[in-house]
Here is the input.
Amino acid sequence: MVFPQIWLLSRYSLAAGQRLAATTCPRLHARQLRLATLNAFSVRNKSAALSAALTDHDLDVFLLTESWHEQQDDLAVRMVCPPGYKSVDAPRSSSAVGRRKQRGGGIVLLHKEGIAAKRLTFSAQPTTFELLGAQMTFAGSMVTHVQCSTDNL
Here is the structure.
């Protein structure tokens, strides 16, 4: 499966800092991240293709919107995450379930194990969109990423 809408955000260089252990990706030693984002339109039926896109492009961070997953530690999300990667996710909002069958929503952030990612908590709890914030640390540098996603109810 080809994903023409993968947006490679190229390499994001950071300020100088400490180096990671020698077993991690050389790009991380240079304080660069290879990032991409994709509107997945559900991870359930394309976990193998998404996992292959992640590894084929040697991505450090891969952000999937519209994952359509419904709970933390969802099996479909775990199947997208290949060995050597971890995930942080925000399941889709359940606020629209009573109005109509819900489609859409959900955010998954996949990252290499050499990157420490901590999920951020927010005081506001949105009900019409998903919100995911993560603070990623590597090579002594830190990046904070916040992603909002709506399913256009």
Summary: Strands lie at 7-13, 32-39, 61-65, 85-90, 107-112, 116-119, 130-138, 141-149. The chain has one domain: 7-15+32-149. The chain has three helices and eight strands.
